[in-house]
Design brief:
Length: about 325
């Protein structure tokens, strides 16, 4: 294991939101986390001083084996258009497509890490008609392949590590990179979509602040309502693999806590659900996207029982923007 792990971070077709999220890491901050893990940043577009030719020189030194590359991180999707030439996105200061640089550098790296759903599966950049022919490093949507191909393995023997999310939680990134640098990350550390199990073996539903409303199927009906957003407002937190509500951003924030439905941004093709993100599709009044591992018949039966037992407090609060009825106070010795 090297004394210092050399990390190179590149950005391609995306918004830079995963970097912005990572820079908000707390306890520890991102630089302290890297230092504690023995990670040396060769270059990062937001953290490094080098620009222009100095950056190109670093990349060429890696290609010529003058600099060892331990971890290659890509943020943003790979742009292959037009006609698989990659010329829609050339690396500044060169005449070479970014996708060619990424492919060649991946062959030099001990570990290749896709940071964010765009880099992992194509993400938002690949939505719609996908005119730029965007894809992920080892996935094109739900299909294995992407830029590097299904059989790609980095020098460590691992496939691409997909830290999916839009954006990623800072803890997912720093934790995964620390695991790699400490020699504690292997094939068993990832799920079948290449996501680190440290966060992907959870559901967004776990720790949701609206779970009491979910239990009684007391549902929100419009934006701003306090109730569960699964039945009417498009929330798929019961299917989404992430721990957003267990360790919220900066100890406080998550989509659901901010009043917005979970859109399953850690999954391939989340960007095109086939309906608006704030609408729950239904067949015969039953939501199409049922909770993970829940048989439809059981869900219908339990939902009917739950609604029949919904306390009046939850019925009123579910369709209000602020608590209308507080929980009853029970005193000892009082029935």
């Amino acid at each position: 294991m090297p004394a210092k792990w050399n990390l190179l971070w590149l950005q391609s077709g995306g918004c830079g939101g995963c970097t912005l999220s990572m820079l908000n890491a707390e306890s520890p901050d991102v630089l302290t986390s890297f230092e504690a893990s023995g990670i040396h940043v060769l270059w990062h577009p937001s953290l490094s001083l080098e620009t222009g030719q100095a950056v190109v020189d670093i990349l060429r030194d890696i290609m010529e084996d003058k600099i060892r590359l331990d971890i290659l991180c890509l943020e943003g999707s790979v742009i292959r258009g037009p006609n698989n030439t990659g010329k829609f996105h050339k690396l500044a200061g060169t005449d070479d497509p970014m996708m060619d640089w990424v492919e060649k550098l991946s062959a030099k790296a001990a570990y290749v890490v896709a940071v964010g759903t765009c880099a992992a599966y194509g993400g938002i950049t690949s939505g719609g008609g996908n005119p730029s022919d965007a894809c992920g490093l080892q996935y094109d949507g739900e299909k294995e392949g992407g830029l590097l191909g299904k059989s790609f393995q980095a020098k460590s023997g691992l496939r691409v590590v997909n830290i999916a999310g839009c954006p990623t939680h800072p803890g997912w990134v720093t934790e995964t990179l620390a695991q790699i640098a400490l020699g504690d990350f292997n094939e068993q550390s990832m799920d079948k979509l290449g996501r680190p199990k440290s966060y992907a073996d959870q559901l967004v539903h776990h720790g949701c602040s609206r779970n009491e409303f979910y239990e009684f199927k007391a549902s929100a009906e419009k934006p701003g309502d306090l109730g569960c957003m699964m039945e009417n407002m498009g929330c798929v937190g019961t299917q989404a693999h992430a721990d957003c509500n267990i360790r919220p951003w900066n100890g406080e924030g998550s989509c659901i806590r901010g009043g917005y439905a979970c859109i399953n941004c850690t999954a391939p093709k989340f960007e095109e659900p086939g309906h608006t993100f704030t609408q729950t599709p239904k067949i015969g009044g039953i939501p199409v996207g049922l909770p993970t591992d829940m048989p439809k018949a059981w869900f219908v039966a339990l939902a009917s029982l739950s609604k029949a037992a919904t306390p009046e407090r939850l019925k009123k609060n579910a369709v209000a923007e602020h608590v209308q009825v507080a929980p009853t106070i029970h005193l000892k010795g009082k029935s």
